[in-house]
Specification:
The protein has 215 residues and is α+β, with helices and mostly antiparallel strands. The protein has two domains: 2-152, Glutaredoxin; 171-213, Antioxidant, Horf6, Chain A, domain2 (Antioxidant, Horf6, Chain A, domain 2, 2-Layer Sandwich), CATH 3.30.1020.10. The protein contains eight helices and ten strands. It has helices spanning 2-7, 30-34, 50-61, 63-68, 81-95, 110-114, 154-170, 192-199, and strands at residues 20-23, 26-29, 38-43, 71-77, 103-105, 129-134, 140-146, 184-186, 204-207, 210-213. The radius of gyration is 20 Å and the shape is elongated.
């Protein structure tokens, strides 16, 4: 029963599985660390590897952006805490970039398995490049998975974070290729009265079910 639970992959809308683990910030508990903020939880295959170095230094360089969006970062890999600390120091020395977010040392793979980051078809000993967007209510809102040999897109991570926060704030939807400042989609009318009101509104009407507005 325990193994089945561990191997289940969280889904969009699920409560984010809580855990406590050792990290570069000391002992850390996800629910305490994320309290009152958004959290982007992401895994990488291994420290001291080229693609991971570009990715995690990329997250570090966007520190001010994520702070401005009330969003915290947390990385996970199956490396030891000593490896994490040495790698953080190495990246800072060679690239001038400091990873100030916690890196979880998941040597026993408990966190990686809890979040479905270990995918045997790709590797049984390293986490794939997973990204979990977790809202302030600790709900999983969006999940991305990348293979070991393809790096993530930081623009897309930032774009989807802004989109999630926009739909929550304004109760709208975001269309294809939406970026901050673009028009959003207004929910379709649910009654004839709402339909009549929409037809008299100043919304950009493509059809009754597809209307856009600026926010």
């Amino acid at each position: 029963m325990e193994n089945t639970q561990v191997n289940m992959m969280p889904r969009i809308g699920d409560n984010a599985p809580d855990f406590e683990a050792n990290s570069t910030h000391g002992k850390i508990k996800l629910s305490d660390y994320a309290k009152g903020s958004w959290l982007i939880l992401f895994s990488h295959p291994a420290d001291f590897t080229p693609v991971c170095t570009t990715e995690l230094s990329g997250f570090a360089m966007e520190d001010e952006f994520f702070k401005s969006q009330n969003t915290k970062l947390m990385g996970v890999s199956v490396d030891s805490i000593h490896s994490h600390i040495a790698w953080v120091s190495n990246v800072n020395k060679n690239l001038g970039v400091m990873m100030r977010f916690p890196l979880v040392a998941d040597v026993d793979m408990k966190v990686s398995k809890l979040y479905g980051m270990i995918q045997p078809g790709e590797s049984e000993t390293a986490a794939v490049r997973a990204v979990f967007f977790i809202d302030p209510n600790l709900k999983i809102r969006l999940i991305m998975y990348y293979p070991l040999n393809v790096g993530r897109n930081m623009h897309e991570i930032k774009r989807t974070l802004k989109a999630l926060q926009t739909v929550d704030t304004h109760k709208v939807a975001c269309p294809l290729n939406w970026n901050e400042g673009d028009k959003v989609i207004v929910p379709a009318p649910k009654t004839l009265d709402e339909l009549e009101a929409r037809e008299k509104s100043d919304l950009e009407m493509v059809d009754f079910y597809l209307a856009k507005k600026s926010i």
